[in-house]
Amino acid sequence: MKQIVLTVEDNSLVPKLKAAVKMLQGVVSVKVTDKAETPKHNKETMEAIKEIRDGKYAGKLDTSSKDALIESIMSL
Question: What's the whole-model pTM score?
Answer without folding.
Answer: 0.42
